Amino acid sequence: MKGLLLKDFYTLLKQLKFYLIIIVILSVIPSMNMTSMGIVYAAMLPIAVIAFDERSKWDHLAVMMPYTRNELVLSKYLIAYIAVAVTCLISLGIQVIIGAVNGQALTMEQMLTVVLTAFACLILLAIYLPFVFWLGVERGRIVFLVLMATAFIGLMSLESIKAMMDYSTITPATLLLGGAAAVIVSNVVAVAISNRVYQRKFL
């Protein structure tokens, strides 16, 4: 698994620097909306890696190597998990620094915005990545764009979080626990489906 992650990491550094640069730029802009877009881009990294793998015929070589198909699938999910987590940490770190300069502490709404946006992106990951494994990158990307157009990423703005907290009895802890549970369940199911699809694709 470590070798697969290193392969994907080197692919990102050498072939997909644009994605990484955009993610870093968006994550350091002191705007919650831009931060949310940075997290969205981080969740899209598996599409970019799989696209490069398809062009280089990597999958046909990988199935002959000492990797299980489960590891080949899981590595793509891990890339997204790591990228989203790092982007969130960078964003929160920047917000803390800006707050310290301005004499303001990081607010609960800001933290919830970042974390819930990450949860939303990981749930979308669980929905679209099985389609990418099944249909290929080009058609799978269409599924992702449709999801992005109809999903609730746009609702995860600072203003909507404030409104949710002001007019709802739901506590931040409940939101975080519910979001984390949804992420875990959706991704466990998605990994299982992706494994089944990949097994059939490369029998």
Q: What does this protein structure show overall?
A:
It is a single chain. The chain is mostly helical and 203 residues long. The chain is globular, with a radius of gyration of 18 Å. The protein has one domain (2-201). The chain has ten helices and no strands. The protein has helices at 2-15, 17-28, 32-43, 45-56, 58-62, 69-102, 108-135, 137-150, 158-166, 172-201. Helix 6 (69-102) runs antiparallel to helix 10 and helix 7 (108-135) packs across helix 9. 32% of the residues are buried.
Give the gist of this structure.
This protein is mainly alpha-helical and 203 residues long.
SSE layout and pairing:
Layout (H helix, E strand, L loop, with lengths): L1 H14 L1 H12 L3 H12 L1 H12 L1 H5 L6 H34 L5 H28 L1 H14 L7 H9 L5 H30 L2
Helix pairs in contact: 1-2, 1-4, 1-6, 2-3, 2-6, 3-6, 3-7, 4-6, 4-8, 6-7, 6-10, 7-8, 7-9, 7-10
Keywords:
84% helix; mainly alpha; 203 residues; single chain
Low-confidence stretches: none
Protein structure class:
mainly alpha
Principal-axes geometry comes out as globular
The number of distinct structural domains comes to 1
Query: What profile does the largest beta sheet have?
Result: none
List how many beta strands DSSP finds. 0
Radius of gyration, rounded? 18 Å
Helix content: over 70%
Q: What's the helix count?
A: 10
Query: Distance between termini?
Result: 21 Å
Strand content: under 5%
Overall residue-averaged pLDDT value: 77
Order of helices and strands: HHHHHHHHHH
